[in-house]
Design brief:
single chain, 5 helices, 18% helix, 44% strand, Pro_racemase_fam, 4-hydroxyproline epimerase, EC 5.1.1.8
């Protein structure tokens, strides 16, 4: 049997986003958080086939659009990438909205504005359109917060690090320069991957955050290494790690949200603050602290992230049962 998937490929500030516009599995009409569980249980081969090699690569990310269950949303999205079926993805949202609007996949109720049902909650998005193209996107992300500050962890090959655990749609270990880590300047991409893998493994035994409102969202699967900016217009620079060996080419949407929540939790940002976040390749997301928020017993923020994406092509992908590598592979 051969399955066909029609995809619109894009990138958000350098990070790939593959929007599955046709061929995605039919799922029951239910909240997207429930559909996410069904997808992971019964259809995760689709994610692996489209994200992993030979049809994808180590940093591949994507999304599948579904009809919204919530009446206050225009559509729902499942985020698929090499690291799994995520509750939320900021770069994925910016790329998905850009591709969906430009290619006519969705028709907003109000021009320039869409509400998206994600497994992490409702995400409101505004966008600017010029000449039939989406020029920029701003997503108003889910409530974000500093879960735990100054967690000390022994990392093989690095020594003891002090990290903060922060949530911006996914849980992150946030690392700033300190005695045993001098910053990004002395790190290669391979160094970032190796250190992140060891840090995540070390944290797994001592830290397992659970979202106060949804116990299905838990665990530290991402790391964000934060440093001073290179670009004069930026406030900070980062490298976001996810999956087995992926480094986000954008500054990371949920990563920037988690970073701002961490800075807010430590009194270094206030409501109304702007935070221009620079990626390893120099692209920038403009973050803003829009308002205060409560997440269970925690105080946090409502962040917004501004960025851009570009559609780079149409892609019809075949997944043939005769292919020994039909469901993809990863080299570890």
């Amino acid at each position: 049997m051969r399955n066909s998937f029609f995809c619109i490929d894009a990138h958000t500030c350098g990070n790939p986003v593959r929007l599955v516009a046709g061929g995605g599995p039919l799922l029951p009409h239910a909240p997207i958080s429930d559909r996410r569980e069904i997808f992971v249980r019964d259809h995760d081969w689709v994610r692996k086939a489209l994200m992993f090699e030979p049809r994808g690569h180590d940093i591949m990310s994507g999304a599948i659009i579904y009809p919204a269950y919530r009446e206050d949303c225009d559509f729902a999205v499942l985020f698929i990438e090499v690291s799994g079926c995520l509750p939320m993805c900021g770069a994925g949202t910016i790329g998905t909205v850009t591709a969906a609007i430009e290619e006519g996949l969705v028709k907003p109720r109000e021009p320039g504005r869409v509400a998206i049902e994600t497994p992490a909650g409702r995400v409101d998005v505004t966008y600017e359109e010029k000449g039939g193209y989406v020029d920029s996107v701003r997503l108003h992300n889910v409530a974000s917060y500093l879960h735990e500050a100054d967690v000390e962890v022994d990392v093989p090959g690095m020594g003891r690090l002090r990290v903060d655990i922060s949530y911006g749609g996914n849980y992150y270990a946030v690392i700033e320069p300190q005695d045993n880590w001098s910053g990004l300047d002395d790190m290669t991409a391979s160094d970032i991957v190796g250190c992140s893998q060891r840090l995540r493994s070390a944290l797994a035994g001592i830290c397992d955050p659970v979202h106060p409102d949804d116990a299905r969202i838990r665990g530290v699967h991402h790391a964000i290494w934060c440093d001073r900016p290179v670009n004069d217009v930026s406030d900070g620079r980062c490298a976001v790690f996810y999956g087995e060996k992926a480094i986000d080419r954008s500054p990371g949407g949920t990563g920037t949200s988690a970073r701002m929540a961490q800075l807010y939790g430590k009194g270094r940002l206030t409501v109304g603050s702007r935070y221009r976040h620079e990626s390893l390749i120099g692209t920038i997301f403009e973050g803003r602290v829009e308002a205060e928020a409560s997440i269970g017993p925690y105080s946090g923020i409502l962040p917004s992230i501004g960025g851009w994406a570009r559609v780079i092509g149409h892609n019809t992908i075949f997944v043939d049962d005769r292919d020994p590598l039909a469901h993809g592979f990863q080299i570890r």
